[in-house]
Description:
- The structure holds 3 protein chains of 3 kinds.
- Helix content of chain A is 76%, strand content 0%.
- By secondary structure, chain A is mostly helical.
- The termini of chain A are far apart.
- By secondary structure, chain B is mainly α.
- Chain B is globular.
- The model of chain C is unreliable at 72-157 (pLDDT under 50).
- In chain C, the strands form 4 sheets. A two-stranded antiparallel ribbon of chain C has the order 1-2.
- Chain C is mainly alpha-helical.
- In chain C, 68% of the residues lie in helices and 5% in strands.
- In chain C, helix 10 (236-255) runs antiparallel to helix 11, helix 11 packs antiparallel against helix 12 (284-315) and helix 20 (471-498) crosses helix 26.
- Chains in contact: A-B, A-C, B-C.
- Chains A and B meet through helix 1, helix 2 and helix 3 of A and helix 1, helix 2, helix 3, helix 4 and helix 5 of B.
Amino acid sequence: MQPSLSGYLLIGAVLFTCGVVCMATRRNAIGVLMGVELVLNGANVNLVAFSRYTTLGIDGQIYSLFIIVLAAAEAALALAIALNFYNNHLTIDVDKASSLKG
Amino acid sequence: MNGEAVFFTLFTVSACLGALAVVVSQNVVRMAFWLIICLGSTAGLFFLADADFVGAVQLLIYVGGTLVLLVFAVMLTSSGPYVKIETSPGEVILAGMIGLLFLFMVIAAQTGIDWEGTGSRIAEASEIDPPDGTFDTGAEGHTLRPIGMSLLGLRPDRGAAASGTLFTGYLLPFEIVSVHLLVVLVGAAYLARAKRRREA
Amino acid sequence: MGDTLKTLLMIAWLLPLFGFAVEILWGPRGDRRTTRWPAWMAVACIGSGFLCSLSALLIWGSGTDWAVLQSHDSHDAGHAAPSDTHHEGVEPQEHPAHESAQQNPIRPTAPVRANDAARWHLTTAADGHASDAHQNAHTAAGHTDSPSDSAASSHGQVPLVYHGTIYRLAAFGSLILSIDYYIDSLTLVMFTMVTLIATCIHLFAIGYMSDELTDEYVDHFVHTSDGGHLHRQGRFYRFFAFLSLFCFSMLGLVLAGNIFQVFIFWELVGICSYLLIGFYTERHSASTAANKAFIMNRVGDFGFLIGLMVIWTWFGTFQFSDLFASLPRDDAGRVVTGEYGEVALALPDGSSKQIPYTLLVVAGLGVFAGCIGKSAQFPLQTWLPDAMEGPTPVSALVHSATMVAAGVYLTGRFYPMFVPEVLLVIAYIGAVTLFLAATIAVVATDIKKVLAYSTISQLGYMVLGLGVFGWAAGLFHLITHAFFKSLMFLCSGSVIHGCHHEQEMTRMGGLRHRMPITAFTMLVGVIAIAGLSIPGLIAFSGYHSKDAIVATALAFIQANPGHFLLFLLPLLTAGITAFYMFRLWFMTFAGEPRDAHVYDHAHESPWIMTLPLLILAPLAAFCATGGEDGLLYRLLAGSEPNYVAAGVSSTASGLTLPGHHAIHEVHSTAGTWALVAAIAGTLLAWVLYGTKAVRVEDMKRQMAGLHRFLTHKWYFDELYDALFVQPVHQVARFFAWIDRTLIDGIVHFAARLTVLASRWDRLFDELFIDGLVNLVGRATFSVGRSFHVVQTGRLRQYVMFIVVGVVALFAVLFTTFPR
């Protein structure tokens, strides 16, 4: 299987979908975070592929770099929030975090 | 079937399987393990796509940083040794169906595009031309120098066409992101620090 | 010399203002309220003013070598009959050239004389800087002085008139408002008279007002609602502050060099009299009287304003000197009129302008209307008796010697602007006034009211004298009257003070035993005003001045027999005057005490009050000694307009105005008649009130109708009430009715209509607008409520929603935009 644009895109789609499903099924907040990471990676795969196979050039790679950095930041913050939540509720089940529901 | 194809196949399979395993496995620690597999494979795919610096960053930050963070979080928040928070099967099935539907839609959108029609352009851009062999791709990677220079606001890869225009690289976003990181660092430290409950 | 005069008179003028400022600002603080220092301050100011005025008069006289006194009688002397009783003391002088004497340059051809200097002065003053103007005035005065020194001996070419600008206030185009001065012998005599009398009155007031020197003054004439009397702080300082301000205003009026400045001080005098009449402001009668005085004066001032407007519009200047110079008169003193009755004015800027003759009449009548109000002439005479509500020194100062004199003074000052028709009106007004007031005085029983009506009557004499072309005679009487009337007012004040504020003569009597000084000085004043004399031996001032007026009137009716009333009324009134004045004296000082209580408590006033009486009494008696050859008359006559002496024959309206010659011929006749009338009046008074030979009560009963008519002051107040007040009330009531029924009806209807409309509007708002708004709100609310089930708060569901949304979106995209 030769590397090709559609191959990469396919991988990105699979990662993305897996991330979405992960977010939708996990009740553990950290599981949800992992789903988010998967989704971001799927997007990254797409950007890198476009960088390689289209005239986008290194801009795609720079975008993906920013995404990685921001994902790391997001992960740090999200984990901090999760820890805080755990400290307050002694659980990490996102379904319990429904105080603000309509 | 050359080495590139072999590695591509290998990484593709491991990335997809890793992702699926993340979805499927019920244990958070295992999920983390499978996520490492998945993200590492993705880094390999980056290398294959000549994005060696992005791949390296992927390995460093994701695999080496973020996932360690996640594992720490798991350790800090697990109330018992093997606590599982189960999801109801109905929800799982519903999510799976919707996920499949989504996957199908994305693939349909992707395959609907006539990539071959733009093939000539793609072929032209298939190699990022190192400018006049001023640097050794073997030693410095394919895109390390252009990325670094564009983060400094210079675009040698665009040639003279870009000079003098408004688009002068990513210096400002770079600065913003650095400040952003600092803010996040402070904010996360503030949020996560252990608060002493007051004994009232 | 002009500069010196100006400075001296300005000092005399401004000192009272300074005194006023100090007294009103420093007076009310702390214990100064109960000390006499404001009085001494005021006395010092006005006394220094008197000294300044007197020295100014002396400087003026010596500067002119008393020219007005020496050569005055040249004309008379040529024709005087040696047998003339009145002129016995005067040596008949053979004058070689009495024709030239008639054109004697020393006779006040005043506006011409100092004109060159003053004109130049005015033009330079118009250039701008007051200080420059002052410098120029100085040199101008110097110019006038230097020839005067050399020429005085040769031809007497000394300026008798000095005028110029002290300070230019503003210039609106060609309208220049400035503080001017106009100094001639009339100004100087008035200054001296006013300051001297004011000084005496100030001294008197120190004693009279001393019961105000307390923090707790009890006003027995004001009853509070709880039956007690009003208690208030003493207002000693305020009284003297007002007196000072009044003196300042009066002196400013006399010094004024233009008619507009006169008007300003005219109003200041008015407001001062308002303040002083209403001094006991808590007494209803006092405040009403103050209002009445003020409002009646406004009526006259309205005419004054009209006169000012005519003058400004046609003459373009307010300066006396310019005004007098611009009215053309021929050699006989007639105002030169053109073919159609127009008068060609010679304006100060050298141009000429035609003015209708009627407008001159209007201007003259307008200015005289102001004098009618101020001098309480018919028909505006009713305010003055009411004004006796003020403290008695105020009556003496404001209502005998000075303020009411302002009207007569202005008539004299503005004399060259009055054409013969106006003079006729002036004469008739004076004649009616003097008779009317004298008759009322006969029945008045309030001692101050008698004096008030006698004041009106005497003012009528002055006005009549001016009106029948006796310029000097009218002003002569003004001065003499000021002395003896202020004396009598102060005497009455002394009586009132001694009798503890009892003013009714019917409760007095025999007071000469209790207050001899007052009785004696009062008798001097009474003889003076009555015009009694022993011919050839002794004659008090009133005899001379009234004689001059009656003589002028006689000469006038000889020339114009149709106007015989102008002689009959003053002659008759001369008798009435003597009657009511002696009636007053007999009722007050002679006979038996009518009220034992009043008599027992009566006492002579302290020296501070009798001293002014003793000062004023000789002045009242002898200030006019010598009559028309005397010092005072000649001083005044020195300022007489130059055309008056010769008389004016057959003017356009057929009037003949008598000259000095004509007057002199009838002088002895008139004097005899007047003396007979006065003696008759005196005898009648003595018979009725001195001897008790006839019971006055019986006479009163027999002539009840006449008595009632007179005690009601000819029903003037009632007449004015019916003529002006009631119609105004009726009209007001009518308009009030219109307001209440028509206007209010419309307003109420509109209001009701508005209420109705707004009720409908409210219904519409509540049902429709609110309904719409509530509908939107309710719809939004229910939509939100229905959507709130979606907000489950479950994170994973949201993810599902997003995914489903994206899928649906793409599905729609793909189906809508197929490739």
